[in-house]
Design a protein that fits this description.
binds magnesium ion; binds adenosine-5'-triphosphate; alpha/beta; 4-stranded antiparallel sheet; hydrolase; membrane; globular; transport; Rossmann fold
Amino acid sequence: MSIKLEHVNYIYSEGTAYEKHALKDICLEIPHGQFVGIIGHTGSGKSTLIQHFNGLIKATDGVLYYNGENIYADGYKMKELRNQVGLVFQYPEHQLFEVDVMKDVCFGPKNQGLSDEECEVRAREALQLVGLKEKYYDRSPFDLSGGQKRRAAIAGVLAMRPKVLVLDEPTAGLDPKGRDEILDQIAYLHKQSDMTVILVSHSMEDIAKYVDRIIVMNQGQVMYDDIPKR
Ligand code: ATP
Ligand code: MG
């Protein structure tokens, strides 16, 4: 699925004392199947930008297109879009809410209409990919360590087999080995499928070898957009 942002602006708490113009006139085209890295200082707008990709937040101004279709148009099937776009939040707690890890990872595929058996097959496959051991599957996600929560949250999105995978600092808090394992798996899945991947990171170094393109955000704007210097 190709993505296009046309003059996207986003203002938090518009009209209040806390107003913040977090995205300023973003124009971007992401072709189908591209692996894009987004970096930038804290507060530069990375998380705000990527939450637009599954319609979680709506541009204050401007348009977002998927395959040429305006997702803000009346009648656009946002639920279908959400079933195809997997978003891993910066803070994994934001997407773990079921009684156990298995149920959490099954949540996405279940919404896609898969049977319980199919959901479990998908979930086990995804949990293995992210390296979370079987003994955690029936535990409450709240009892996991930070790194384990992150793995569970990533598995939940991978189990959807999304056409577009959006990850907000998915390896924050993991040790270098864990970080490389997860990124290697995502790169492998990207090669295997024709999935578009959008990966937010704090560090150019961590992601340069994986991505086709680097976007650098600065104060709500795109400051640099090119192939990475390796
Ligand atoms: P980080 O690297 O720390 O995750 P980021 O690049 O993801 O930062 P955003 O979270 O997109 O940055 O924030 C962009 C700007 O919008 C920041 O100035 C931030 O303070 C502001 N902001 C973010 N969320 C809100 C909110 N809910 N209400 C008001 N302002 C917000
Ligand atoms: Mg962020």
